[in-house]
Design brief:
With 109 residues, the protein is an alpha+beta fold. 17% of the residues lie in helices and 28% in strands. It has one domain (3-99): Folate-binding superfamily (Folate-binding fold), CATH 3.30.2270.10. Pfam families: SoxD.
Length: 109
């Protein structure tokens, strides 16, 4: 079971306290976007074995969206951070790199 901590209200709880929202840091396209851009947004997702950056919502608490860095194999949570962040904070990247040698931040387009 995952134990997550909401970066907004500080509540730490089991994953049942939260709702998963898919991959984090995807570029969302507005009106006027091309069909290719929209297709890529809907269907080109990472599904890694290992480190994954995800969106979560504190459903049974403050209701805010945030991001979590976790390992899909070990269920280790490296940290959580606000959803308005464009990439994981340095301390979380460093923690992941220390635990998963060779991991690197994937640039999103």
């Amino acid at each position: 079971m995952l134990i997550l901590e909401c970066p907004y209200c500080g509540v730490k709880g089991e994953e049942t306290e939260f709702t998963g929202g898919g991959e984090a840091h995807l570029k969302r396209f507005g009106p006027g976007a091309s069909d290719d851009d929209f297709h890529g947004y809907l269907f080109k997702r990472e599904n890694p074995k290992g480190v994954h950056l995800e969106r979560w919502r504190h459903t049974n608490g403050c209701g805010k969206w945030f991001h979590a860095a976790r390992n899909t194999v070990t269920l280790e949570v490296y940290g959580t951070y606000p959803a308005q962040t464009t990439e994981p904070p340095k301390d979380i990247k460093d923690k992941i790199s220390a635990r998963v040698p060779g991991w690197s931040w994937r640039e999103f387009s």
